[in-house]
Amino acid sequence: MATLIMSNPSLAFLPSRLRNSRHCFFEPRGARIFDKLVSAVKARAASSSTAFVETKPPTDPILVEKEASTRENILACPICYELLTSIGNPGISLEFATGSNLQCRTCKKSYSGNGTHLDLTVASGAKDYGEPMPASTELFRFPLVSFLYERGWRQSFSVWGGFPGPEKEFELMKDFLKPVLGGNIVDASCGSGLFSRLFAKSGLFSLVVALDYSENMLQQCYEFVKQEENFPKGSLSLVRADISRLPFVSSSVDAVHAGAALHCWPSPSAAVAEISRVLRPGGVFVATTYILDGPYAFIPLLRTLRQNIREISGSCIFVSERELADLCRACGLVGFTCIRNGPFVMISASKPS
């Protein structure tokens, strides 16, 4: 809020016609009356409980504006979705991950950084309680899988799934993200941060949140960032969270990206509904996955088989573009579109404006 500071505080009480006049002429009697009026005003100001700050020239009023933060805090408590306030160190980026302490204004629960990332899961801080996740989620929490993800695992997607590769995928998604460039982006189920780092280095976004449930994946992302010189750490934040309980204020996120992740989510509908909740009106959701249609449709009992796979592993197999379009529509997103390359599909939808 702007604060008005005047060189002569007594003038604040004068009628505007006198206060704003540059040239005023008074008869001697009028001058005496004016002096008495000023004296009375000064006496009133001296006895008032209101504090005034008098500055030296220039004599014209000066507008002093409180400096605004360049990056809006979008982090929320995963329990009650209220904005988290900072305790001590105000930063949420990678630069401040070690000393970050956040607290919910409603339930008063505190969340802290552990040196590499902020833990914003519901069970954060619990010592004796823990929840096992489906196999498709737990798999990526193993240190070996996290280590191998960018050392051969992700590259194999191009062989069996038609994935164009990170650089080409990045170029494709930029067309979908054009309406929100300059805003913030959440890289959901970021893995070891392959795309999170590309987003941050591109300079196209004011804030990049690398979000994953796997502590070891986030650790790998942190290690990769440390190895890069001149990496813009101030624009990247690493957050551990559940995709079905996103720790963001409603309607606060400009874009959400989920690379090769939809099929790993235990409940794609719960996840996309959460994404829809946190997106601002006009915000964009971009995701890649694979579809077993075309020749795969002739696999005997495919739909029954995928149901069994889902019950055992928690992963989901999509069999048509219509299925993905219906998922987005059911979760309140519009303007569904997609790009195909064999089984590979990149989809995009947006929050209604």
Structure description:
The chain is of the alpha/beta class and 353 residues long. The protein has two domains: 62 residues, no CATH class; 221 residues, Rossmann fold. Helices cover 31% and strands 19% of the residues. The protein is built from eleven helices and 13 strands. The strands form three sheets. The protein has an eight-stranded mixed β-sheet, with helices on both faces.
Furnish the topology, listing elements before pairings.
Elements: E1 3-5, H1 16-19, H2 28-47, E2 62-64, E3 84-86, E4 101-104, E5 110-112, E6 118-119, H3 135-138, H4 143-153, H5 157-160, H6 166-177, E7 184-188, H7 194-202, E8 207-212, H8 215-227, E9 236-240, E10 253-258, H9 268-278, E11 279-290, H10 302-313, H11 321-330, E12 334-341, E13 344-350
Parallel strand pairs: 6-9, 7-8, 7-10, 8-9, 10-11
Antiparallel strand pairs: 1-2, 3-4, 4-5, 11-13, 12-13
